[in-house]
Queue: 4 jobs
Job 1
Amino acid sequence: MRINIITSVFTWVLMILTVSCELDENPPYDLKFIHIMHNNSSEVSVNAMANTVATYNVYLSSGRFTETVTVTYDIIAGDGLEEGVDYEVLNKNRKLEFRPGIYDMPIRIQWLPNPVDPEKDNTLKIQLKDNDQGYDIGLPGPDQKQSVLIITKK
């Protein structure tokens, strides 16, 4: 009787393994893209009287990669902000290099205390432009969300 139970269990396990090995695997979700956000948002604000360094990360979403990915970006200030008066971009060039194994890179901005004119455009946009490996810019989909981070000085 005990041998029958062991044989039955062994048969079931063997059948389950056979069936599971024959199932087609789903293709992996393997989109490669680069995006920017701060605290899971595409829009953030900073106090006009802040005297702080803020870090805004750019993220590379990909499986393992072996080539360095160079990303270029622009800093676009509204007519209410002036570099050197309201802010200072601490990154010296407008490129980020993602070396193999690195999946996030910082853009650092020193916010300077200076009141703003509420009638003007007091936004600073960090806009991802392109990269040298053909990765998509922004989240997958037609809207390209998180390709621009908008920081409003209030």
Note: The mean pLDDT is 89.
Job 2
Amino acid sequence: MKKILFTLLTLIVLFSCGENKELEQDYTSFSIMQNEIEEQPNTVVGYYNNGLCLKIAELGDLKKGVYSDEVIVNNDTLTHIYVFSDYIYPSFKMDTVLILKKNRKSTFQLQRHTKGIEVDQNDPCQYPH
């Protein structure tokens, strides 16, 4: 009986470790989807560094229920990203911080309760440039 239990536990550990290896990749990337409106216009993703908001990618218009193209992140130290759009105000930043998983493809679904904070597109401290 002990031998069977040991074998089962070993198999569980092996399969769970193997599963994680399959998710790993040589780069960090992400994809974003929204399910609330038919189209979220001019969606941009950025991050903050030394007081400036820097652009990672322009996702264009996010269609309802469709993930954006995969975006590869070239900065290995980057963990927190922000989503900007022209949906509510001339431009707004979503109040949710998205956290990347290193060497994985992070997939994010923007939630209904996400609020927007108005930003000035011309200010490099507020909007990605």
Note: The radius of gyration is 19 Å.
Job 3
Amino acid sequence: MSTNWVIEEAKKFDCSKDKAILENPEKKKCLDDILIKRFWPVARESIEDAMYNYWPADKPEIEFEFSYILTRSMSYMLFDGNKAFFRGKLSCSMRHWILNSEFWLGLRQDTDILAIIKILQDPLLRGIPPALTLY
């Protein structure tokens, strides 16, 4: 860029807001391209090979992520029928990338509490205990 990108980005600031976030447009585009053109096609192909329903059907929306370095992320969900059971979030910076995952086990409200306790005590979950959330 021939002009200082910080000044150009600052001109876009909405004065009615309480904070300004400045992102280098060239690095932002580079990270967005890595997520959409490099990582998403591989993830989508693997999901389709496993024959899961997923969202979004086309390309995920790329979002800003608070960090000390510019980080962009995309999220996607997997469904068993019409019920979500997994949410993946791939975050990428110029230094690293990380995949966060979150699983859900949908149980009926009248499920025996002893069965739930048995799931929570499973030795496979040692060190990464699941959170129990009721809706």
Note: Residues 5-106 form one domain.
Job 4
Amino acid sequence: MNWKALGFGILLAVVLYFMFLSFRLGYLSILSFIIAPFIGGYITGGNVKIGAIHGAIISFSGSIISILLLVILVSTFSTQQIILGNNILFLVIAIIIYTIIGAGFGIIGVLAKNRALKQ
């Protein structure tokens, strides 16, 4: 495990997620779970399996942290309540999809680094 790549990737995913939300571009927030695993996979290097594992961990952890922070921030600073009971299934499906996407882009990041090193 490359802990530096994991930590940087998770932090990048969370920062990008909230950056997209703060600019009212919530529909683009999925890009945070594409860009961060790609960069984490690129930092990691190595083989495809390592890239997939790192990308999946980055997306999974980043999405969990982002969702929890969003719920905490909205519950603290907003007059509206977030009712998670109705949305739990949607959140679980979204996290699974983000994890699969992250694994794919972690692989692409590793392949990009391997290709760059060959040239």
Note: The longest helix spans residues 88-118.
